[in-house]
């Protein structure tokens, strides 16, 4: 990572963002590490939140951090399916995806992938599309027959990602993969991000969503928690619903080489900067 000085940082740091005085300290901390950022939830729809996300990713790139963006697309997919009057069915939080649905899912995810890449490149970053049509890096095995075209990552071309990062480019990965016959499969966005983070042994996996983080039984935000304790929250049904598969991915990542996973609120301006450049962080950190 090229050395950055405070005068340069001041030119790119948002006036309303906090923690300017901590930036050099944390740049030193992350200089040899990889950070995977999953952009998902309802934050995908709101254009103001999207623009804020693009600005923050561009700042991280300008600071020389090694980052990979993985995005979801659930709300956008839902919107498109409704337009075509196709009802979605879910099993354990995963969308049942038949031949008709997968073509819509693929189109929506690739359009969104291109939107992120184009928006970053307009800011001066060098982002690269990775999806089922361009630079595919994920080989999958089918999840289960009932789900149709839903896959689990089996093999990931990590060298392709590392080569992009060496050139200070930003890989932007759509949660799509191909089977052994080159059929396209949808992948849960958190699962795709977790699989990539595990393979890379990343320092952090940030899951940006539309909640502040994980809450305890008094509805207070938990700033840090160990995998064992968060499993207990699931057993006690304090964590439930759509948060359960997310938590399972977090625990799996932490148990398999990722130093820490953070669930944070993508609706909050500069939540990524607050998380990476402050002692307190911004959401819930899960680590051993």
| Overall CATH class | Alpha Beta
CATH T-level topology = Carbamate kinase
Domains (count): 1
Structural class designation: alpha/beta
Integer-rounded radius of gyration: 18 Å
Report the biggest beta sheet as strand number plus sense, adding barrel if it closes: 8 strands, mixed
**Overall pLDDT:** 92
End-to-end Cα distance, whole Å, is: 27 Å
Summarize the structure.
This protein has helices at 6-12, 23-30, 47-62, 74-83, 99-122, 158-166, 189-200, 227-235, 243-255, 271-276; strands spanning 34-39, 66-71, 90-91, 94-95, 127-130, 138-142, 151-156, 170-173, 176-178, 184-186, 204-209, 224-225, 260-265, 284-286.
Structure description:
By secondary structure, the chain is an alpha/beta fold. The protein has one domain (22-286): Acetylglutamate kinase-like (Carbamate kinase). It is 40% helix and 20% strand. The chain is built from ten helices and 14 strands. The chain has helices at residues 6-12, 23-30, 47-62, 74-83, 99-122, 158-166, 189-200, 227-235, 243-255, 271-276, and strands at residues 34-39, 66-71, 90-91, 94-95, 127-130, 138-142, 151-156, 170-173, 176-178, 184-186, 204-209, 224-225, 260-265, 284-286. Strands 5-8-2-1-11-13-14-12 form an eight-stranded mixed β-sheet, sandwiched between helices. Strands 3-4 form a two-stranded antiparallel sheet. A two-stranded antiparallel ribbon has the order 6-7. A hairpin with a 5-residue loop joins strand 9 and strand 10. Helix 4 packs across helix 5 (99-122), helix 7 runs parallel beside helix 9 (243-255) and helix 8 (227-235) runs antiparallel to helix 9. The longest helix has 24 residues, at 99-122. The two termini are 27 Å apart. The model has no long low-confidence stretch (mean pLDDT 92).
